[in-house]
Amino acid sequence: MQSFLCKACGTQFPAAPEPPSECPICSDERQYVPEEGQQWVTYDDVRASHRADIREEQPQLTGIGLKPQFGIGQRALLVESPSGNVLWDCVPLLDDMASFVDARGGLRAIAISHPHYYTTMVEWAQRFDCPVLIHELDQRWVQRADEAVKLWPDDACELWDGLTLVRLGGHFAGGQVLHWPAGDALLSGDIVQVLPGGRWVSFMYSYPMLIPLPAREVERIAAALEPWEFDQVYGAWWGRVVRGDGKEVVRRSAERYVRALD
User: Fold this and answer.
1) At residue 122, what are phi and psi to the nearest 5 degrees?
2) Within a 10 A sphere around the Cβ of 207, how many other Cβ atoms?
3) Angle value at C-alpha 173, between 201 and 184, nearest 5 degrees
4) What is the DSSP string of the chain?
5) Rounded to the nearest 5°, which phi and psi values hold at 92?
6) In this structure, are residues 174 and 185 in contact, taking their beta carbons and an 8 Å threshold?
7) Which of 14, 105, 115, 161 could be bridged to 81 by S-S, CB 3.0 to 4.6 A?
8) pLDDT band for position 262 (cuts 50, 70, 90)
């Protein structure tokens, strides 16, 4: 049996003789099935055709991506912390990346912003013998069940060294961000989407389908971030970074969004 990944979003499914009939994540209205139809690739094929793309973002924060791009094209972030490292979001490839992560002290946990980036999270968790932290409201989107997947409730989950997961919802009900006070940063995936140029962010129910969130939901997200201090915001892709005044950027972006809807 082989492990199949959705070619469009990168989600890994349990090993089986044949691929699934559909990818529930791509069939959801927030994503899409490509015009040519649902396509699959084996995990071994991804390993054979891609290589690691590792770049330092700032001290104790390293981006981990793939060359060439695969699926949605996000990059993960390795947060190094005295009491244990966190992998924020996930990418399919593990081989070369695992060696790099080992050299930086391994992982104490994996945390993923939302279901579009779950990909091979179980492979990573098993390799590093650590949990994958997902908000309980997104449990239904986990396609490969495993005891490593740990669900958390409520609106905030304190980890260690001040690292805290904050549920913002919006894009997905359980959408979460990671507050990293030691780096003065918010790691946002695309729950808070950093826009080109790094001077604005945005918020959407669906990015590829261009479905906006209601104004009241954006106001709620902005209010939920008010207690947290951060100067930088790291989005889901290379170059999508707010380099300064991040909290004010989120505040004014939410205000602009609401004005546009009004």
Assistant:
1) -70, -35
2) 16
3) 40
4) -B-EEETTT--B---BSS--S--HHHHSTTS---TT---EEEHHHHHHH-EEEEEEEETTEEEEEEES--TT---EEEEP-TT--EEES--S--HHHHHHHHHTT--SEEE-SSGGG-TTHHHHHHHHT--EEEEGGGGGG-SS--TTEEEE-SSEEE-STT-EEEE--SSSTT-EEEEEGGGTEEEEETTSEEPTTSS-EE-EEETTTTEEPPHHHHHHHHHHHTT---SEEEESSTT-EE-S-HHHHHHHHHHHHHHHH-
5) -65, -40
6) no
7) 161
8) confident
Using DSSP bridges, classify how beta strands 109-111 and 132-135 pair: parallel, antiparallel or unpaired: parallel
In angstroms, the CA 155 to CA 256 distance is 25
pLDDT tens by residue, 201-256: 999 999 999 999 999 999 999 999 999 999 999 999 999 999 999 999 999 999 99
Residue at token pair 């490839």? 93
**Number of residues in the chain:** 262
| Structure token digits, residue 59 | 């001290």
Amino acid at 151: L
